Amino acid sequence: MGALLIRGLRALTLACLVAGCLSVGWATGGGEDQKFTAYNFWYEQPERLYSTGYQKGTMIPAGTAVTNVTIYSETIAFRIDRERYTIYFQPQHHRRLRIRAFANRLFTTSYFEELTRGFTASEIEAIKEGRARQGMSKEAVLVCFGPPPEVNNPSLESDDWTYNFDRFRKYHIFFADGKVSEVGRGGP
Q1: 157-183 b/e (C-beta count within 10 Å ≥ 16 → b)
Q2: In this predicted structure, what is the pLDDT of residue 61?
Q3: pLDDT at residue 185 above 70?
Q4: What is the pTM (predicted TM-score) of this model?
Q5: Which of 65, 105, 142, 176 places its Cα 20 to 30 Å from the Cα of 114?
Q6: What is the SS3 assignment for 156?
Q7: Does residue 126 form part of some domain?
Q8: Which phi and psi angles does 108 have, rounded to 5°?
Q9: Which of 42, 74, 108 is the last residue of a domain?
Q10: 18 SS3 class
Q11: 67 and 136 fall within a common domain
């Protein structure tokens, strides 16, 4: 009976490795660090979010506590309170980014007040609203929207960041001297 159980566990472990399942151990409790969203993230259906960061639907605010984060080969699952969310990683939009690196970028150990420490009251208000405003720093835009998809933005050093409002509409955030100077058409 013991040998059968060991073989079953080995088979399950192998199946998980082949399928690309990897728990990152970010659940709360057991001495693990609490995890939070590092930036605002939008969804229309909790079971189907996209790594491209469409900014349509309901916003999960930056600094929201998450539990049970699990990385699979093509998805990242997590919970907020009792609701389960699944992000579909789209590698074609993230040229040099792998799913684990994306998860490490999306989740942090910093809560909202830590994420926004040093920001102006106007920047914090804009982040809470999920809107870009003139004068926001690049750092505040990153907490508001996350990094723009790499397929449209080869470098964060650029002064023109392109985000996806939805599958069909994009908008630009332009910077001058590290601050938002203009939000292009179609932007939030």
Answers
A1: eeeebebbbeeeebbbbbbeeebbeeb
A2: 98
A3: no
A4: 0.81
A5: 176
A6: coil
A7: yes
A8: -140, 170
A9: 108
A10: helix
A11: no
